[in-house]
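>> Question from a student workshop board

For tomorrow's exercise we were told to take the sequence and the ligand below, predict the bound structure, and bring the output to class. My setup keeps failing. Could a helper post the expected result so I can at least see what it should look like? The ligand is alpha-L-arabinofuranose.
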Amino acid sequence: MLKASLITDKYYKIGDIDPRIYGSFIEHLGRAVYEGIYQPGSPFADVDGFRSDTIALVKELNVPIVRYPGGNFVSAYNWEDSVGPVAERRKRPELAWQVIESNEFGLNEFVKWSKLAGTAPMMAVNLGTRGIDAARNVLEYCNFKEGTYYSDLRIKHGFKKPHDIKLWCLGNEMDGPWQIGHKSAHEYGRLAWETAKAMKTLDPSIELVACGSSGLMMPTFGEWESTVLDYCYDSVDYISLHTYYNNHANDSADFLANSVGMNDFIKSVTAACDYIKGKKHSKKQINLSFDEWNVWYHSNEADKQLEKWVHAPHQLEDVYNLEDALLVGSMLITLINNCDRVKIACLAQLVNVIAPIMTSDTGAWRQTIFYPFMHASNYGRGTTLQTICDSPVYDSRNYTDVPYIDSAVVWNEKEESITVFAVNKSFTEDAVLTCDLRQFGDISINEHIILTHDDLKAENTENSPVNVAPIYFDGDTSEDGRCTIMLPKQSWNVIRIRIC
Ligand code: AHR
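>> Workshop helper replied:
Here is what the output should look like for this input. Compare the format with yours to find the bug.
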């Protein structure tokens, strides 16, 4: 039995959690849009063709923002192709994923869908093949009230009220050689600065995200952040981070240790932001938008065999297992514990494409990673508390001193509750976690939700959709502000505590 402990104090706060860290992402890629959220003629479709079974699951996830329309897709995207009468929209070869884009579903449909799903769009502009002009035009179309060419065009398209989209990404992964219109840090920094200037002149109420590196392993990492921010520090609000982990090596201990790498990534980007802040003698703080994160690798081989230039193929359809859910849980814990600087994060993606939700012609189901995300998004709202944690550690191929027990503590003062999120990364031993919460006075354990399975590789599929599903445990104890919690081996845990 492993032994771990944590102590916290309600006056020691890391920060208030911005609910937007529970964002997600829909790209025009594979079956994310077509068959995922939009499928006219399906028995699940509403009058607009939106799948209501998908919407119900998105609502369970309680997603405050959804990034759209890409991703790599956005870097060759002409937004004008996606608005106006559907019959007149252009079909285009889509260069990023080498498929056909029908544009039946576009910007206005996405805004409409977002409202129904209880979320808000986070739009990206194309800084690959396009630039300042297209960015200011799409912003005018979306946010300008009336009386100008593009605002009146929106009204003509049936949307009298502006969409009032508050959050915009200045391109996508512009450091990546795979990106259409890939740029050097100097080229991108200048363009991001000028685009930001034009967009904020048109609508000063918006917030802007500049592209950071597309991964910690990029050869330009660090230099990219500081060069880009040196140009656009004063005109942007956030810098992006992206990361996807894989277990190609089938080394599960090392795979689960990747949350340590994610934490290092966040700390390094924060340092780059603060270096430019110091250099510029600025009072402004740039925060982080972790707008793509997940596990992605199961579908890599299948995707190499895909036929090109078809519409909405089965692309990036990773089937997730328990160990993926455990890493996703640890990544959520990492985001929660860095809430002082990470204000936005998007699980990439939402439906069918490396996603928590899958659909077929006969229904929709929850992948394993659905559960940690749903729990964190619903119960991880409030203030993250600083904790002193004592956990046994292990070394893996790429990491040293990896805690077996990852944890985060969130205090929701309004609801008089505390939630402890914890992952036990041991494959052989259960753990007992003692939590010292005496600062809160009397407490009692409300519920303890566990996601686990004997088989680390257990999956949920269309034929077996609840193979990995949460269970409830009522054997924990609490006395005089201290609780003793059982964390089964290889498990994700949510302990909901009432302050009496
Ligand atoms: O989410 C899939 C892809 O991963 C995105 O299009 C891109 O930004 C990243 O490389």
